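Bumping my old thread because nobody answered last time. Still need a sequence for this structure:
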């Protein structure tokens, strides 16, 4: 990955994470907190599924373990600390 693409992805990711609280506050006027989180995770899951659809699956158990650990820390641990 070249530096320009990496920098662009960092800016986009930071912007999305930073704006999530403002968007969440607006969304709470229309949805319950649990439904809003469910919608957010469903949308994120669908976008990630489209992103990795044609990628090869990991071959070793170590790769799967790393993916599982990153997924747990990035999702459950972060959301647990926020809520």
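Sorry it took so long. Here it is:
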């Amino acid at each position: 990955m070249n530096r320009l693409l990496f920098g662009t992805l960092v800016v986009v990711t930071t912007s999305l994470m930073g704006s999530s609280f403002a968007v969440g506050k607006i969304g709470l006027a229309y949805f319950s907190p649990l439904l809003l989180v469910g919608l957010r995770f469903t949308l994120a899951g669908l976008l990630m599924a489209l992103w990795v659809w044609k990628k090869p699956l990991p071959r070793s158990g170590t790769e799967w373990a790393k993916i599982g650990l990153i997924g747990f820390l990035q999702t459950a641990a972060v959301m647990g600390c926020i809520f």
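The CA atoms of residues 41 and 57 lie 22 Å apart. Let me know if any region looks off to you.
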